Amino acid sequence: MESSSLFTIIAYLFQKSTSILKNKKKKRINKVGWAAILLLGITTIGVIGFMYFENDTFLDALYLTTITISTVGFGLPHELTSGGKVFTIFLILFSFGNYAYAISIITSHLVQGQIYNVLGIKSKRKGKNMKDHVIICGFGRNGQKVSLELKARSQDFIVIDQNHEVVMNYAEEPIKFIEGDATEDEILEEAGIQNAKAIITTMPADADNLFVVLTARSLNPNIVIVSRSSNESAERKLHVAGVDHVVMPESVGGAHMAKLVTRTDVLEFLDHLSITGVSETNLDVIDYHELPAEFRNKSIMEMAVRKIVGANIVGFKTPDHEFIINPSPETIITPDSKIFILGTPDQISKIRVHKVKK
């Protein structure tokens, strides 16, 4: 084998491994698979090199390669030539970091896989079989609050977070997790983006939220998107990108604190209401299709909700998406409309049952 041919092969393998590592983020190729390819590439370079410079057999070349890249340091089967020594130096310098990287990836995959199996996480990490669920991107303070609200309303949801410690800390909780970057198509697809009803992105960086919005909208044009924003400039960009609702936690918190001073009684009254199903008095919305058949296409007076269950209809959303506060008794509940109910959880649930006893 000519020297030029050998170094051409070495250069090609080096370029290939470097290209693989650089494009890993873009294509999200299996890390373990690439680690195995990298390890095989290093071993191949070593075997070819020692067979060329030392005229070794395949077994001796493989032995020399193994003890060199693993830094074990067993005895040599023979003295190396000058060319062999130069090649060994090159192999050590080239393989040291790459070998350690490949071994660490493979080892961590095996170890974490066993941990997931022991803790029962493996069965909870997929969202492809879910339907009409909510995807939460980011599990910081806002993400955790969102999960509590959804859990109180018995809404199925799945959480995406790339922080391994966060995923492990909540391993014992009945929460479906996917460990990964929510800005990547494959992760959102794993979370069942095509079948989800909504996605809520609560990540601290506006750029990440914007990227998630663009990706989610392209994968599911009909999904409802709610995003966190840190400032008005980012809010405008998010709306342009296709967000349905933008929330600025700092702005909401500041407005709430100001109203505690100027509208104390109003806020104290509102604090007695809840939309989570855990308070004695809840404010909830019921779609036309959720109503029993005897309530559809009837007026609010004919429904007699207050007389039947004791709750009150305090709002109405028309099919044209107009809101009416305290609608008149003559208001007709038509298809694609919604009613807003104020009452206890038990009263509200009775309205949704298939048959209401009058």
Question: What would the keywords be for this entry?
Answer:
Helix Hairpins; 3 domains; 51% helix; 6-stranded parallel sheet; Alpha-Beta Plaits; alpha/beta; Rossmann fold; 5-stranded mixed sheet; single chain; 15 helices; disordered C terminus; 358 residues; 11 strands
CATH class identity of the largest domain: Alpha Beta
Please name the CATH architecture of the largest domain: 3-Layer(aba) Sandwich
Distance between the termini: 94 Å
Give the helix tally.
15
Order of strands across the main sheet: 3-2-1-4-5-6
CATH topology of the largest domain: Rossmann fold
Helix content: 40-55%
Q: Please give the radius of gyration in angstroms.
A: 31 Å
What average pLDDT do the residues reach? 78
What is the 3D form? Answer: elongated
The total domain count is 3
Which regions have little confidence, pLDDT < 50, spanning 5+ residues? Answer: 20-29, 118-125, 354-358
In CATH, the homologous superfamily of the largest domain goes by the name NAD(P)-binding Rossmann-like Domain
**N to C succession of SSEs:** HHHHHEHEHEHEHEHEHHEEHHEEEH
Describe the largest sheet. Answer: 6 strands, parallel
- How many distinct beta strands? 11
Structural class: alpha/beta
Q: How large a portion of the residues is in β-strands, by DSSP E?
A: 5-15%
